Amino acid sequence: MLRKTLACCLLCAVAPVHAATSYAIDPAHSYVSSYAPVWTNEGPADAGVVSLPGEVVVPLAYYWRLDWQPVNHNISGSFEAEVIYSPFHPELSRLQLSNIKVVTDAPTAAGFSLPYQLSITGGGALHISNRVCDDDGFYSPGYASCSGGNIGPVTTHSGTFGAGQIAMTGGKPPDLMLTSLTRSAEMPPAVTDYSPVAGAYAYSIQATAVPEPGSGLMMLGGLGVLALYLRRQTNRERQQAIC
Question: Which of 88, 76, 202, 60 is nearest to 144 (CA)?
Answer without folding.
Answer: 88
